[in-house]
Structure formats: C-alpha cells, structure tokens
Design brief:
Layout: H1 12-26, H2 31-41, H3 52-65, H4 71-82, H5 87-93, H6 98-111, E1 136-141, H7 145-148, E2 156-166, E3 182-188, E4 224-227, E5 239-244, E6 260-261, H8 265-276, E7 281-285, E8 288-291
Parallel strand pairs: 4-6
Antiparallel strand pairs: 1-2, 1-5, 2-3, 3-4, 7-8
Length: 293
C-alpha cells in the first residue's frame, strides 16, 4: 500500500475502495449490489489487520456522504476506530501517528452524526469525441472580439483531422491505456481566407505549428489533441465541411499531456497565427520539425 499523508484518502487502499464502490453505483447498481460487489472485489483485505480497517473507513465515509451508510458498514468502521485501526502503519514508518488519530476522531464524529440525505448518482453522459473522419477538412470562421485585435475577425482557417490518440499516452503510464478516452487530432493550415475556400486551395499550404515546445525539447507540435467536455462547446455554427483529403504522412502525432478543449479552439488559433504565421521551420528528420535558426 502506498501512503503519502495522514488524511483518510492519502493512501492507495482507501482511494481504490471509494472509487470502486462509486463506480458500481455509477453503473446504476443499487446500494446493496454495489456494497456486495465491492466486498467481493476486496475480500483479500478482510482479515488483514494492516488494511482491513482502511476498507471499512473508506466505505463508511463514502456511504455517509451520499446518504447510503448501512448499519453493518457503520459498525465495522466504528469498531476499527475504537482500536485505532492502522495506526501502526505510521508508527512503524517513523511518522507521527497523531495526524491519523485526528483523522479517525473526525471520521467517528461524522459517522455518529445525522447522515446526509440520499444523493442521486447519475450515469455519466458519454460524449462522442470523434465527430470527424480521418482526412475531413473543415473551415472555421474566426469570430470573437479578441480576434479583432489581431486582424483575424471574419477570416476562415482550415482544420483537418489527421488521426486519433488517447488522452494519456502509453509512454506516460504503466496502466492499460485502453480505458482512456480516444480523442481526435487535428492540424491547422497556415493560411487565412476571406471566404470559404475549396479543398484544392490547400495545395502547397504548409501547416501551422501549435507550440514551440514538445518532447524531445525543441520539436514543434504541428497538431492539436482536441477534447470535447460539453456538447455545447463544439462550435458547429462556425464550422463548414469542405470534404476529405489525404493526410500528410510525415505529420507525426507527438506525445501530449494537455489537450485543447473545443471551447478554447479560437484562442489557440489566435495564439498560433500571432506567433508562428511568418516563422520558417524545417523538417530535420522525417516527421520532426524545428524552427530555422
């Protein structure tokens, strides 16, 4: 078990138990079913004096918070609190156990107080992140007040979906990335149009960098990982579909940490045109670009 503090959720076990139980409720299981499945998931902890208390503490606190605390879970948690459950973990590590004892005292006070009313657990809305096919090209019309400061207001910018990528790349995590949302990756053509152009108008137009820094250091990001957190953030009224065209083979999808939200796309475009529109860059190796010195 990993631990980094003396608060209730400053360790792996309580975090995992809480998230597992809430996950079952999110799947719309009733409280009895969610509790049963959570206990089955962590049956190895029952009987383990080092970690069993953490199981009941996390379960009791979470159930109390959402108005579903059962008498069984409450009794188990209070029983372990009376025994200073898990205090040995901090004493053995040489860290003062006073902080943990205060946490348990606070938990006891909470569990013995009137429980909150039952909170409805809604199933998360799954938002379609991939609204375009690979190769699709859209004309985006710049329209915000900020764009007027940069003489971009009313101009059209061409965006193309070049691929897809998980939000958290596999090189950043040892976890299975298959559970991560797959987002669309777009690139931007470095030309402004007064009217909606035709696809043929992109011939010979270079791409617009989105950032000067990437991994490895100094390599240009030539594309953007797009995230749609709310349906209303997608700027459909400002996008016009032009058609589909081949994607440049040498535009690599570089590792990303922070995606661009669709409601920030215009700010991102304004920044890129203001800083990179006239800067020259070169391909130093296949798919790797840097600004010319």
């Amino acid at each position: 078990m990993g631990t980094w503090g003396t608060t209730l959720y400053s360790n792996d076990t309580t975090l995992d138990v809480r998230d597992t139980y809430m996950g079952f409720l999110t799947e719309q299981l009733n409280n009895e079913e969610a509790l049963k499945k959570t206990m089955e998931e962590y049956q190895d902890l029952i009987g383990d004096d080092d970690e069993e208390p953490l199981f009941w503490f996390a379960l009791a606190e979470t159930q109390w918070k959402i108005g579903r605390l059962t008498s069984e879970v409450k009794e188990k948690a209070l029983e372990w609190i009376s025994k200073d459950g898990c205090v040995a973990l901090w004493e053995e590590s040489g860290v003062s156990s006073e902080g943990w004892k205060k946490t348990l005292a606070g938990l006891k006070e909470k569990l013995e107080s009137p429980m909150r009313s039952e909170k409805k657990i809604r199933k998360p809305t799954v938002i379609n992140q991939n609204l375009w096919n690979v190769g699709d090209i859209y004309a985006y019309q710049v329209h915000t007040e900020e764009s007027k400061k940069h003489d971009l207001y009313g101009k059209y910018v061409l965006l193309q979906k070049m691929g897809e990528s998980p939000h958290i790349p596999t090189w950043m995590s040892s976890e299975d990335s298959s559970s991560e949302p797959v987002l669309m990756v777009i690139h931007v053509f470095n030309r402004l149009y007064d009217e909606i152009p035709a696809i043929k108008d992109i011939d010979g137009v270079r791409l617009l960098p989105s950032s000067e820094t990437a991994l490895p250091l100094g390599v240009l990001k030539m594309n953007r990982l797009m995230e749609l957190t709310k349906k209303q953030h997608y700027p459909a009224e400002h996008l016009s579909f032009l058609g589909n065209a081949p994607v440049p083979a040498n535009n690599l999808i570089l590792p990303y940490v922070s995606p661009t939200s669709w409601n920030w796309i215009e700010k991102s475009l304004i920044y890129s045109f203001a800083n990179y529109q006239y800067r020259e860059y070169e391909e130093v190796e296949e798919g790797v670009f840097r600004f010319k010195e």
